[in-house]
Specification:
Elements (H helix, E strand, L loop, with lengths): L1 E5 L7 E6 L2 E7 L4 E5 L6 E9 L8 E9 L7 E5 L4 E2 L4 E7 L6 E6 L2 E7 L4 E6 L5 E9 L8 E10 L6 E4 L12 E4 L7 E6 L2 E7 L3
Parallel strand pairs: 8-14
Antiparallel strand pairs: 1-4, 2-3, 2-5, 5-6, 7-9, 9-12, 10-11, 10-13, 13-14, 15-16, 17-18
Length: 212
């Protein structure tokens, strides 16, 4: 917003502009006018005061006006993923970028499930998760707004593919005798469920449900 103070055409010197106790800056007289441009006016009805300091021929003077400042109607918000697509169990960080000057928090959700809430620092808020389900996940960032900025939302589709776990196979007795009982153990990551089938060549030895 540019604010202009008009003084007598022959006046010289400067005019200081304030909004309450906040100094908005000073402008040098030119052709009877002085201006200042500011982008820091708070939301509400601001009383702007222009104070002319006078010169050798002119006394000091003041003038006032009111400026109505509303919340930003179009708060910008973008949402990005650190890894898209990702695999099940992989750590993924979502970053919401808001307008410069915005404060408060951003809540991240996957459908109806809340992933977490991040506090805005600089102009970003983040959340990190390792629990995204396999499939196409509808991720949304919701900014709650503050005294100067309205709320806003942004969304993206996060593709989560099945993981390819690495397993190990051990056995209790090797070598063993014919017809001796031998136990084979398959060890997999802790998040793996389901069953393991054990084979000798093409011959199935048996299956076991994964436990722990």
């Amino acid at each position: 917003v540019t604010i202009t103070a008009a003084v007598s055409s022959n006046a010289t010197g400067t005019v200081t502009f304030t909004s309450g106790s906040q100094n908005l800056g000073s402008g040098t007289m030119s052709g009877g006018k002085a201006t200042v441009t500011t982008s820091v006016l708070p939301v509400g009805t601001d009383t702007i005061t222009a104070s002319y300091g006078g010169d050798a021929n002119d006394n000091t003077a003041t003038g006032t006006t009111t400026q109505t400042v509303t919340k930003s109607a179009t708060t910008s918000l973008t949402l990005t993923s650190s890894a898209n697509p990702s695999t099940y169990g992989q750590s993924v960080t979502f970053t919401a970028t808001v307008a410069t000057g915005a404060t408060g928090t951003v809540t991240f959700t996957n459908g109806a499930t809340t992933i977490g809430t991040g506090t805005i620092s600089g102009n970003t808020a983040t959340v990190t998760t390792t629990t995204l389900p396999v499939g196409s996940d509808a991720i949304k960032a919701t900014y709650g707004g503050d005294s100067n900025f309205n709320s806003a939302t942004a969304s993206l589709t996060q593709t989560v593919n099945k993981a390819s776990p690495t397993g190990t196979l051990t056995w209790a007795t090797n070598p063993s005798a014919a017809n001796q009982s031998v136990t084979f153990t398959a060890t997999l990551p802790t998040t793996v469920a389901g069953a393991v089938t054990f084979k000798n060549g093409s011959t199935t030895l048996g299956s076991s449900t994964v436990t722990n």
